[in-house]
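Consider a concrete sample entry:
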Amino acid sequence: KKAFEWYEKAAQQGYAKAQYNLGVMYYQGLGVDVNYKKAFEWYEKAAEQGDALAQYNLGIMYKRGQGVDVNYKKAIEWYEKAAEQGHADAQYNLGAMYENGYGVGQSDDSTAMRWYAKAAAQGDVDAQARIDGILAKRRASASAPGAFDAQGKSK
């Protein structure tokens, strides 16, 4: 309860980390009732100041429709901001959005692989597993009957 009061004072003065922490408290119900709308509002204030964790959490909230309507394009925007700052979970989630075609029109395995590779380079084993899955899918489709080789000849 006391932590909430201190974070709230600092957040109202514009401190991004305090704004992020208030968002967490509202999101998880720490010292206050769970309130996704308030969590979203505080995350947004911190995210607009460049806080990567807040940007990532906004991406999650837009993807899940927590405190805001589901909006995959907005989720991608916020994931990208966090991912560009090196946030591995945001990089993984971007890969998943592109792999599944959420907010991007259609599946884009090449872009998904690029984001998964960035997350994997930071030790994200799930990202490496997704890369392996995409490569296996490519190998399977390349060896399927009627597939074409590099010269355009049917196999």
In short: The two ends are 68 Å apart (CA to CA). The mean pLDDT is 92. The first helix runs from residue 2 to 12.
